[in-house]
Amino acid sequence: MTTEHLHPHHESHDYVAANQQFFDGRAETMDEFPGAKEMAKRVVRAMVSKYPPLFNEDTTTAMDYACGNGLISRELCPHVKSIVGVDISQGVVDQYNLRASNQGLEPTEMKAIRAELKGEDTELDGTKFDIIVCSAAYHHFPSVDDTTRILTSFLKPGGSLLVADLMKKDDGREIFAKDHHHVVAHTAGFGEEDMRQIFTKAGLVNFDFSHITAVKLHGNDMDVFLARGVKPVQ
Ligand SMILES: C[S@@+](CC[C@H](N)C(=O)[O-])C[C@H]1O[C@@H](n2cnc3c(N)ncnc32)[C@H](O)[C@@H]1O
């Protein structure tokens, strides 16, 4: 089985530009999207309870990719030493940083930057992370293979990539509302085998996958998965 079917819904559409514009316009209110807060809480609870050794509040350095205005980072903050949020939308990055400073957090503890990572050594000042988390965002990425390979390059050897997103239905039907299709490259979500192949292609090992919760989003009952892969120590 290949992941050819994981090519975006419309090959020629510029999903990155569409997402940037879409989330710039929703930066202040995106965490009010019905189901978003509850999903973030449950995702972080699952990450911390399934993989306790990954979370040390004195030492763990984390990246939150496609961080939005910081729902996941704020839940994760008490469990790690520092978090860098990365997103393509300047609007959400500004909201993330405003909320972090309103909570009295120093930028060394929690800050976001606007970037579309390419995997180059000079990006993020060459920083490598113990964990990279990415929630509710894989369905937006035009190439999930490229993004996973790039995120893996930002992990320390032995570091973990943790991806949470919406699970494919048995019949593979579209699960996102039609009015979001211009920003959703993978309208059916992902299954366990999809994620295994994406992670394996990126060189990640010790693949683990679990269904963590059900949420109501886009008017549908959706299942949320958590996938984990580890960057080998060479
Ligand atoms: C549904 S929001 C999820 C935000 C956050 N992870 C959360 O769980 O609350 C999706 C986010 O993905 C970002 N995004 C979309 N396409 C992206 C891309 N190609 N690279 C980086 N971020 C992207 C959007 O700007 C938006 O902030």
Helix and strand element order: HHEHEHEEHEHEE
Q: Which CATH class applies here?
A: Alpha Beta
Kindly state the number of beta strands. 7
The average pLDDT is 92
**What fraction of the residues are assigned to beta strands by DSSP?**
25-35%
Structurally, the number of domains stands at 1
Calculate Rg over CA atoms.
16 Å
Low-confidence stretches: none
Briefly note the CATH topology name.
Rossmann fold
Question: Ends: how far apart?
Answer: 28 Å
Small molecules in complex = S-adenosylmethionine
Query: What structural class is derived from the secondary structure elements?
Result: alpha/beta
**Full CATH superfamily name:** Vaccinia Virus protein VP39
Architecture (CATH level 2) name: 3-Layer(aba) Sandwich
Molecular shape: globular
Total of helices:
6
Query: What does the largest sheet look like?
Result: 7 strands, mixed
Q: In percent, how helical is the residue content?
A: 25-40%
